[in-house]
Amino acid sequence: QVQLVESGGGLVQPGGSLTLSCAASGIIFRQYTMGWYRQAPGKQRELVAGITSSSYTHYADAVKGRFAISRDNAKNTVYLQMNSLKPEDTAVYYCSVQSRWGQGTQVTVSS
Fold this sequence. Notes:
By secondary structure, this protein is mainly beta. Helices cover 0% and strands 51% of the residues. The strands form two sheets. Strands 2, 4, 5, 6, 9, 10 and 11 form a seven-stranded mixed β-sheet that branches. A four-stranded antiparallel β-sheet has the order 1-3-8-7, with no helix packed on it. It starts with a strand and ends with a strand.
């Protein structure tokens, strides 16, 4: 059974940084594209960043140049490094693979 467990969220001031982690189990991790999504209150869930099995990455326009996705296949973990955070980045961030979702981790950017 696929399990995804996110961690690393929290409260940060504008301009600050956070790194999210997502530990996966129940899959041959290295074979799959992994994604980070977010959902702000009253808005639809949106793709933030993705990384393929060959580590090709892609990003939503809103986060390009500020966020970086990476993976460690030895640890079955995908990361999202978030820099220069803005209040509009406030959301619950979810890890996803093959239409499965983690429980999410809250990121709040506020002074």
